[in-house]
């Protein structure tokens, strides 16, 4: 079901001009949470899934929650990424949405609190134009339980939306942001069209638009 706040009077993006869609990955572009899939492989699935749910609802600091979950993955062989990649599924309508937007001169980016080791392959499969994710440290073919470089946070998601829009030379009114977790809220609020997609309660409450039909192509119904 499509929903919007009745008080929202923002002029929505249009398909008649080039624009930009930025999406979350886990539970948005794909049905699964990659960190949870890795946790299951490590035998700590329930512990990791519990922390994931609390972090996505804004109950925990995202950086601390991610570090704690990644630490539990220490010792996993890097080959696990091949298994996880084969196990995840694009959300219904995701590829149709991307193809439709490309057909109107739009570009699509994803910013993920997940991991390059899986997101890179998903981005190529889906024909995504821009992407950013975290990267896990490995040594001797096994995960060390640590993250390399800066962690992708809500601020990084927001900055990516702005940076890619600037690179395209488009106004923020011609952007869309879609996600399900609390760390997606800044970009959802900043975009010309911000949509909570089958989202956590906090995001449902705060986002200006909501889509609770798990079919991403219905995002097009919001556009002018």
Automatic annotation (TrEMBL):
<dbReference type="GO" id="GO:0036424">
    <property type="term" value="F:L-phosphoserine phosphatase activity"/>
</dbReference>
<keyword id="KW-0028">Amino-acid biosynthesis</keyword>
<keyword id="KW-0479">Metal-binding</keyword>
<dbReference type="InterPro" id="IPR004469">
    <property type="entry name" value="PSP"/>
</dbReference>
<dbReference type="GO" id="GO:0006564">
    <property type="term" value="P:L-serine biosynthetic process"/>
</dbReference>
<dbReference type="Pfam" id="PF12710">
    <property type="entry name" value="HAD"/>
</dbReference>
<dbReference type="InterPro" id="IPR050582">
    <property type="entry name" value="HAD-like_SerB"/>
</dbReference>
<keyword id="KW-0460">Magnesium</keyword>
<keyword id="KW-0718">Serine biosynthesis</keyword>
<dbReference type="InterPro" id="IPR023214">
    <property type="entry name" value="HAD_sf"/>
</dbReference>
<protein>
    <recommendedName>
        <fullName>phosphoserine phosphatase</fullName>
        <ecNumber>3.1.3.3</ecNumber>
    </recommendedName>
</protein>
<dbReference type="InterPro" id="IPR036412">
    <property type="entry name" value="HAD-like_sf"/>
</dbReference>
<feature type="active site" description="Proton donor">
    <location>
        <position position="26"/>
    </location>
</feature>
<comment type="similarity">
    <text>Belongs to the HAD-like hydrolase superfamily. SerB family.</text>
</comment>
<dbReference type="GO" id="GO:0000287">
    <property type="term" value="F:magnesium ion binding"/>
</dbReference>
<comment type="pathway">
    <text>Amino-acid biosynthesis; L-serine biosynthesis; L-serine from 3-phospho-D-glycerate: step 3/3.</text>
</comment>
<feature type="active site" description="Nucleophile">
    <location>
        <position position="24"/>
    </location>
</feature>
<dbReference type="GO" id="GO:0005737">
    <property type="term" value="C:cytoplasm"/>
</dbReference>
<keyword id="KW-0378">Hydrolase</keyword>
